[in-house]
Amino acid sequence: MKVLVDTNALIWFLVDDPDLSVPARAAIRDSDEVFVSAVSLWEIAIKSARGSLDVPDDLEARLAPLGFLELPVGWRHARACGTLAPHHGDPFDRMLVAQALIEDLIIVTRDRDIPRYGVRVIQA
User: Fold this and answer.
1) How far is CA 53 from CA 71, 74, 76, 118, in A?
2) Three-state DSSP class for 13?
3) Which residues of the chain have pLDDT under 50?
4) Which residue ranges form the domains of the chain, and what is each CATH number?
């Protein structure tokens, strides 16, 4: 199984938050490939700079030893994002949907609007 971890699920997993669902935790821990989008780190950086999110300075350095793989934003992702129905107003989540569709990934998320795109989801 190949999964894409959304921003909230990533943070919950890293801090061992008990609110992360058991299936989500298992998917992140046991999947063949676990991707973290550059979009999620961008969102984290913005929220951290605003002071609305406290994250460790070495966040990126913590991801690789856990087996997380970087998913950059590519041209195909950007193009697909532009064709999505307007179910979701958050540009970060829309890009995660586009990436999941293009790369055939399952998104680990608690977001209620993401499943409306027909992408596979594991509830976080």
Assistant:
1) 22, 27, 30, 30
2) helix
3) none
4) 2-123 (3.40.50.1010)
